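Changelog-adjacent note: as of this version, every example in the card shows the full chain rather than a window. The one below runs 97 residues end to end.
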Amino acid sequence: MVFRQRLKRALQKKKGWGEGSDLSDGQRGLDDCLLHPPDLLLVDLNLPRRHGPEIIREVRARLESTRIPVLTGHAEPKLPAQLMGLGVAASSTRRRR
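Full-length structure tokens:
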């Protein structure tokens, strides 16, 4: 929650970025996204009620112009390719030392 709030504030400070939604429930996030199509969607991969990959798949099918970058700490080697296959804008994995 703290990371989500800080990221939202940082994005809002960027010139030209408007108000964004900050939802921790995957289904509510998807519903909000489809009702108010965003230019940019940041989605966690593990959310209650709807996981990130499901949300990405649904948004990509309905909102082709929405950019969806993914930042993750998951170290699964196949994950970046899977996310790119869903149509995300970028993916990054970093192993913790």
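Structural remarks: The chain has four helices and two strands.
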